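Could you help me review a protein record that somebody else here produced? Here is the record exactly as it was handed to me:
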Amino acid sequence: MNANIFKCLNTKVEYLLKSFIIITLILAQIVLTENIFGQSEVCTVRDYSPEEMLRLTDEFNQWLQQGNKVTTSGTVRIPVAFHIIRRNDGSGDVTDGQINGQITVLNSGFANTNFRFALHSIERVNNTTWSTQAISNSQVEAEMKEALTIDPSHTLNFYTSTNEGLTTGFARFPWEFSDEGSYMHGVIVKYTKLGTTGIHEVGHYVGLWHTFENGCYEPGDEVSDTPFEALGTVGCPTSKESCGSEDPIHNFMDYSTCRDHFTTGQSDRMDLMMEYHRPSIYYPVNVIVDQQREDGSRLSGTYIGYWNGSSFDDNQIYSGTITLPFL
């Protein structure tokens, strides 16, 4: 056989083999991520190529080289505004107890980081379109968030929905929108998936990738103390090794049912990403105020802004009921 023809055939066979492997991995992910209810445990955050990830990292490094630096001083307390998006008949509700439970779970999950969460507000909305169709990058998502968001520069907006196509939830990474005040920021979680799914999505909100980002290849999830992982974990296996070392199956940014921690490297990355992309929520002082002024008026609500030693910026005040103090 002619050598050139043989070489061409080998190239085609190699291409077909690689294509077969890729398709097999994709099908394996679909099959393996089926839980006992027949739903895939898949978080639908936006996908980034390794090149895009490295570009974001380069931009951050340039910011540091310009003389900026990350300084962590104490706990960053984030108010959480819950939006419970039910169907028109009221189905898909989440109780106040479940909401308070989610806050408790968030604080437990983030206990080894600098972030803590407190309930800011709860609203319930009956809108079947929003509840069933607010998937990532949809016009419905944008319409719903524009109508409901509460001060996204300083508040985590947490939406629940009944969307059957939303297997668990998704979040907006802190770098997705140049404006901290964009109404698109926040997380959406299926109302039946609160708990560790909430921790997972808020992990994205503060700047973490999946532990299996990029599989066994650089740059992975850009965190040095989370081993490479080929695919998200299903269930809670005794052990799992997909890239030559033990997979981080207990990490909150995996898909397993026994997630219980963030690593020190992930905590450090949260600080870096939040200071760089969300400085307004990273630095503010949160103080509940109920003050009788000399002119007879009463100042009440929660200030979120910079304290200059004697006052806050009056434009930074919320009005309304605050369920838990921040300090």
